[in-house]
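Budget justification aside, the reviewers requested a transparent look at the raw inputs and outputs of the sequence design task funded under Objective 1. We therefore reproduce one unedited record. The lines immediately below are the structure tokens for a 529-residue chain.
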């Protein structure tokens, strides 16, 4: 099926690709920025933010709200953009904190992240949480300070905050001319030039950018230019200059100033993604080896999506290609089951739009239709078996016993629970004591329960009743401690679907008192965020 020419081309194709995600707190402007990126790469003709929310056209990325209000699924897909002959794969992440686990899995599939912060608010809780995940995974981060068109903080103060709270040294690539709320343009720190932005009506179109020498800039902008230069010279003095190696190693973060809604600074971000963000590289397998980029095809499932088409109950598995060439129609193997999987229906999906994908390379995302047998985290491959590490799970903080409302529907109930587990919608915990009829659902955020409840009724025809438990904290433990922990008041040990034993506690204080009572007990925090 592979022609040699296509395979030989893989390293070149991989070098042309960037897989990245935007991490931000809700409302920082992620949807607006996504649209602006689509606009600047000519994926769409006009941005949707024309008349404010009421009159706003549905945009390429804000379809998630709709899914959410319908309670069907809150999903991530990817948007493929081409800029300067580079293919940018923007992986979408759910905005709501309750779906952090989804976001976490998406971050396992990217090579870089854009940390988007609101100029007035600085680093917000969700940004910090996602940042910690990126840091943990060694994902290089480009920072964008957004909404510079609105009154906000002092830029140097924002740099201090980034340095203090993330531990990354900010290395601004541009520096704003005009205080927040009076955004005129930026100093391009690499050339010293002034890039002036012009506002277009409603900000719906690409904003014109003009370049001026420092002398011209001084004549045009006067005091605003002088103070920008003064601040930039402070940066020069502290050595806050971009260094590719430090960036790739996660020690520094290049910073850009932007106004997504006005389309200011978007080209600079695209340039940074092309020039600085790392292309896909080989990924470590469970046995610590790697498969060469131009080896046989391999990929892993980072996201399952169901119910986009409620009539067909279709299931999409989103894979990230790791090595080789994906060609639609080829039959690959699932490493977990050893079973073949036919890829006749392969798509790219973003929002409601889907296009057929015929060929894909490392760093690309492909949506596979009819993927009911695949699980999130599965590896697909051609040639010798290869298996990538399971996707990390988040520490659950909400727990509820789930039962079928109608005992006669137990078969449907089991099928539904198995499917939700495979997709990673919720974690499922069991114990002999509670029995198969009443497993415990574990979630990072309570909205995951709502999605599970809704889907059990509408998709699997097995309405359920949830009984919330008062646990808030889980720790991994081992078989030898199972009985002793179960003997502690308020503590319960259950087995998760992946075989991990979890001890549940009402709160952290209880964890501490158990540790005092059983000094040698093995209690391992689930995810360091
Ligand atoms: P999110 O996806 O991160 O949640 O944020 P989203 O893009 O939806 O933006 C949140 C709000 O911030 C929107 O305003 C949006 O227009 C505004 N916004 C985004 N980028 C900028 C920017 O660069 N400057 C300014 N001034 N505002 C920005 P909204 O009032 O909620 O909606 P709308 O009525 O503007 O559509």
């Amino acid at each position: 099926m592979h022609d040699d020419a296509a395979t030989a081309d893989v390293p070149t194709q991989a070098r042309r690709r960037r897989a990245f995600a935007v991490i931000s707190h809700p409302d920082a402007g992620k949807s607006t920025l996504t649209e602006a990126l689509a606009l600047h790469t000519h994926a769409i003709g006009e941005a949707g933010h024309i008349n404010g929310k009421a009159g706003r056209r549905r945009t390429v990325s804000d379809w998630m709200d709709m899914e959410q209000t319908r309670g069907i699924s809150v999903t991530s897909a990817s948007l493929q953009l081409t800029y300067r002959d580079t293919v940018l794969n923007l992986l979408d992440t759910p905005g709501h904190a309750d779906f952090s686990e989804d976001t976490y899995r998406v971050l396992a599939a990217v090579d870089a992240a854009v940390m988007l912060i609101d100029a007035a608010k600085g680093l917000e809780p969700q940004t910090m949480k996602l940042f910690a995940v990126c840091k943990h995974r060694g994902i290089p981060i480009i920072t964008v300070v957004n909404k510079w068109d609105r009154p906000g903080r002092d830029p140097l103060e924002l740099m201090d905050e980034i340095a203090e709270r993330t531990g990354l040294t900010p290395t601004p690539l541009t520096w704003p001319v005009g205080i927040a709320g009076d955004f005129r343009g930026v100093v391009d720190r690499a050339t010293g030039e002034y890039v002036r932005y012009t506002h277009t009506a409603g900000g719906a179109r690409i904003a014109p950018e003009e370049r001026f020498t420092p002398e011209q800039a001084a004549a045009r902008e006067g005091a605003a230019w002088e103070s920008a230069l003064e601040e930039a010279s402070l940066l020069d003095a502290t050595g806050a200059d971009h260094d590719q190696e430090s960036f790739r190693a996660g020690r520094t973060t290049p910073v850009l100033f932007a106004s997504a809604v006005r389309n200011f600074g978007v080209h600079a971000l695209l340039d940074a993604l092309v020039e600085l963000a790392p292309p896909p590289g080989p990924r470590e397998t469970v046995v610590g080896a790697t498969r060469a980029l131009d080896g046989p095809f391999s990929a892993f499932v980072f996201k399952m999506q169901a119910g986009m088409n409620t009539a067909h109950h279709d299931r999409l598995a989103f894979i990230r290609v790791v090595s080789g060439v994906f060609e639609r129609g080829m039959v690959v193997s699932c490493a977990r089951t050893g079973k073949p999987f036919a890829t006749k229906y392969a798509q790219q999906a973003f929002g409601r739009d889907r296009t057929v994908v015929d060929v894909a390379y490392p760093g690309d995302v492909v949506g596979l239709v009819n993927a009911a047998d695949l699980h999130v985290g599965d590896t697909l491959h051609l040639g010798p078996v290869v298996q990538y590490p399971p996707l990390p799970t988040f520490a659950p903080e909400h727990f509820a016993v789930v039962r079928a409302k109608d005992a006669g529907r137990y078969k449907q109930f089991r099928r539904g629970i198995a499917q939700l587990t495979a997709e990673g919608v919720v974690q499922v915990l069991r114990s002999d004591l509670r029995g198969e009829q009443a497993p415990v659902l574990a979630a990072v955020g309570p909205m995951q329960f709502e999605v599970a409840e809704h889907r059990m009724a509408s998709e699997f025809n097995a309405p359920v009743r949830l009984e919330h438990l008062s646990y808030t904290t889980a720790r991994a433990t081992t078989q030898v401690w199972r009985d002793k922990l179960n003997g502690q008041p308020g503590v319960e040990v259950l087995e998760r679907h992946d075989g991990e034993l979890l001890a549940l506690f009402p709160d952290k204080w209880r964890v501490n008192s158990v540790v005092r009572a059983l000094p040698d007990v093995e209690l391992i925090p689930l995810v360091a965020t």
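Residues 24, 26-32, 49, 52-53, 56, 95, 146-147, 149-150, 259-261 surround guanosine-5',3'-tetraphosphate (CB under 6 Å). The chain has three domains: 16-275, 283-381, 398-525. Computational costs for records of this kind are itemized in the attached budget.
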